[in-house]
Specification:
single chain; alpha+beta; 39% strand
């Protein structure tokens, strides 16, 4: 979105960049970004592209927030939370992930999205955030540690993709103080 501001005789365009909750109109862009991660990286352990209907179903069925980074050219990144494990005792724990269009890596969008996501999760009563990172991935490790997440363990050779075995490191962050409220 571009707004024009009148300054005397000059018109200046102002780029409107924002983080906001994902909406149905964002799902094609989310699907495209996710599939780029599936096709080209180890950041997503999927090996077959996700079709748009699967993305739509995941969005409709979600129990956790999704956020997007919206620039003039459209959605360039998204972050989402999901159920860590289905057993009831895990209901205060959520898994997070962030995906950024490769043209926009290194611009701080991951941290910006995570700040919004983590705040929403804490506001909704979640107690622990977990993120899995296919290793090695120095940029993702830096991002998660910048968000105050701590490395809590690594499981060796957890996924086989693009002809390689990859270990998965787990990072976690405890939210809030005192006993958790029900999410």
């Amino acid at each position: 979105m571009v707004e024009f501001i009148e300054l005397g005789y000059l018109r200046h365009s102002v780029t409107m960049a924002m983080v906001r909750p994902a909406e149905e109109r964002d799902l094609e862009a989310i699907n495209r970004i996710e599939n780029e991660a599936i096709d080209r990286t180890f950041a997503h352990f999927g090996v077959v592209p996700v079709n748009l209907e699967e993305t739509q179903d995941a969005y409709v069925d979600r129990k956790h927030p999704w956020f997007i980074k919206d620039l003039d050219e459209g959605v360039v990144a998204f972050a989402r939370a999901s159920t860590w494990k289905p057993r009831e005792a895990y209901r205060w724990t959520t898994e997070v992930g962030v995906y950024v269009d490769p043209e926009h890596h290194g611009k701080g969008f991951g941290q910006e999205l995570y700040r919004h996501l983590f705040q929403a999760l804490e506001s909704n009563g979640f107690r622990t955030i977990v993120a899995g990172i296919a290793l090695p991935n120095d940029a993702s490790v830096r991002l998660h540690e910048a968000m105050r997440m701590k490395h809590v363990g690594t499981l060796p050779n957890m996924g086989f993709k693009m002809g390689e075995w990859r270990s998965v490191g787990y990072w976690a962050l405890t939210l809030g103080d005192g006993p958790p409220e029900l999410p």
